[in-house]
Design brief:
- By secondary structure, this protein is an alpha+beta fold.
- It has two domains: 64 residues, 434 Repressor (Amino-terminal Domain) (Orthogonal Bundle), CATH 1.10.260.40; 102 residues, Sandwich (Jelly Rolls).
- The chain has five helices and ten strands; from the N terminus they run αααααββββββββββ.
- Strands 1-2-3-10-5-8 form a six-stranded antiparallel beta sheet.
- Strand 6 and strand 7 form a beta hairpin.
- The longest helix is centred in the first third of the chain and has 15 residues.
- It is globular, with a radius of gyration of 16 Å.
- The N terminus is likely disordered.
Amino acid sequence: MRTPVPDIDQRIGARIRELRGAKGLTLDRLAEQADVSRAMLSRIERGESSPTAQLMNKVCVGLGITLSTLLAEPAAPASPVARRGAQPTWRDPATRYQRRNVSPAGSSVDIIEIEFPPRRSVNFDNMGMPGFEQHVWVLDGVLEMEVGDESFRLAEGDCLKMHTDRPILFRNPTRRQIRYAVIINRGASR
């Protein structure tokens, strides 16, 4: 008999608890560093709440990690191949955007495929996050972005390079789903 795989909220909660413990942070200290209430953080760690992308980003800033690191399978063996069926996916309960970690485990580069629903937006307040180099490559559709005080409109094939130390807003202004890739070079922080 197979042991049931925990749902995504339980996996995220367990992963936050694991990373918090590895960094020697108490629940109170992480809540303070992430600017999230202790009660909310506790509910997330117990798998009782479906955190939004914005909330998980705050927790990641508090932990000093990327969202890809949080969503990665911690026990995944290093392999040069990441098969599509084994790539971790997550859907934001607020915007319904889907995020799939494409890069193989152990890579210093995170490759993420995003499927972004029509007329949605998500804001990441990256203040306090190391300035990792990040590229956003539009695969299908039109994506509007605000990076700090700069605005960009990216069409299919366009690629934007930036650092993750400023607030970033992703917006799909169209009536159809768009698809883009995010590539984060964790070895290229400022």
